[in-house]
Amino acid sequence: MIQQERMIVVRQSEIAHHIFELTLQGKIVQDMNPGQFVHIRVSDSFEPLLRRPISIANINKEANEATVIYRAEGRGTQILSQKQVGDEVDVLGPLGNGFPVEAAPEGGTALLVGGGIGVPPLYELSQALNARGIRTIHVFGFATEDVCFYEDEFSTLGDTHFVTVDGTKGTKGFVTDLLDELKPEFDVFYACGPLPMLRALEGFYPEKKGYLSFEERMGCGIGACFACICKTTDQTEKDYVKVCSDGPVFPKGVVEL
Amino acid sequence: MSRLSIQLPGLDLKNPIMPASGCFGFGKEFGNLYDLSKLGAIMIKATTVETRLGNPTPRVAETAAGMLNAIGLQNPGLEKVMNSELPYLERFDVPIIANVAGTTTEDYVEVSEKISTAPNVKALELNISCPNVKHGGITFGTDPVIARELVEAVKKVSKVPVYVKLSPNVTDIVEIAKAVEAGGADGITMINTLVGMRLDERTGKPVIANGTGGLSGPAVKPVAIRMVYEVYKAVNIPIIGMGGVTNAQDVIDFMSAGASAVAVGTANFVDPFVCPNIIEELPAKLEKLGVKRINEIIGRSHL
Question: Do B270 and A224 count as a contact with CB atoms less than 8 A apart?
Fold first, then answer.
């Protein structure tokens, strides 16, 4: 059930260069699932006007707290990064359909592949998978060392490997370079990151079951404005899907990459 | 007679608030959030004869106190709108205003003739002002002779009153308003979006794939108010005003300028509950103005 709530800032800190971790408290946390996102209005004024879609990185239902991790680069996220403990934030959510945790077979292994600011929703997913007894392997790509985050957090959940474009942390290159090297054994993969990464992954594991989380410029976040449309492949009946309300997670092969 | 009710050709409105076309889909997304029977009416997304997939993305870009969009009239086509979208809305006690778009006069006539037979469609809104398609749309809305002829053609086949949605992208909107009135329009809805462009800071190229997009949101309200004010003086048919409405005061402003009802567009994307919230705020606003019924304020700017 989508609700609007003025959530309270519980914690906020810069965990990497321009990367912020924000924890919000409110009752809509009860409805959240891994892979879903929240649509945040960073200001009560008309500047900026639209909400910012941000994926959910951690869900703590006991404490009614949810954590989001975002890069403060644009106008809106910069305003959000200045929110202090105790401030109210206008949140619409939870939105979209998350990762199907049940797609991983009992006792199996899941490969989680993330790129940059696409990594955060994989944290809640990894916890949910581990809670079901599924082994997780994490392979994450970042631009540089100073924007990497959550290495310790992921390491407690499973094997964690980093790759950076400039080689300042881990292997130098892209996630596919590292996957080529690691040759991990797994049953299903889940991925979130830039389009070129998702495209490369689809081709990399043609025989594996996989789920991809997409990003697209959004307006309303609830499926009404038709801003975040993606063309589908010929295998599907629909001509298009909306990333916000049909996604953001789609089975591999649904969206034309 | 309730305090907020308004009577317009074909439309028995509980209140003057309705979501604007293109900002509410076909209602389903919002129907999951609140009871759509609370609304005065619903202007559904533009319908064309055939299925349209719209423009490439990015389709939206934020601007100062507003946004640009170039969706490109994406819709499932007349048949699917008639068979699945409109029947869904029948469960709510709310009149539907069907926004009609096309490339040729024949397109408009075909959609109008058929969609006006749907039981819950109480009026049509001819979209002669979409700035985001290459053919049709705005070309009908910028020439008074062509606009009048289109209205005449549609009036011959429509089973319900016909409203015409005007474009602000003209030298003289009053001239177009008079032309559609002369063509037999039962009402005017205004304004559609203003053609604009935003450039990418790094590349210097347009952000929106279509290049240009339609500007909406609070930034356009003064333009819309001015145009409603001018058209109200020049025509004798009712106006449904819109352009940057986000709260009850905006509604009062549009009605003061001459609108008989008000549509809410972009604000639905910011706050999906904005329409019911405005409806709830209105009685207190009227109280403050010392007004018993909302229709008393229509055109008060001109007194």
Answer: no
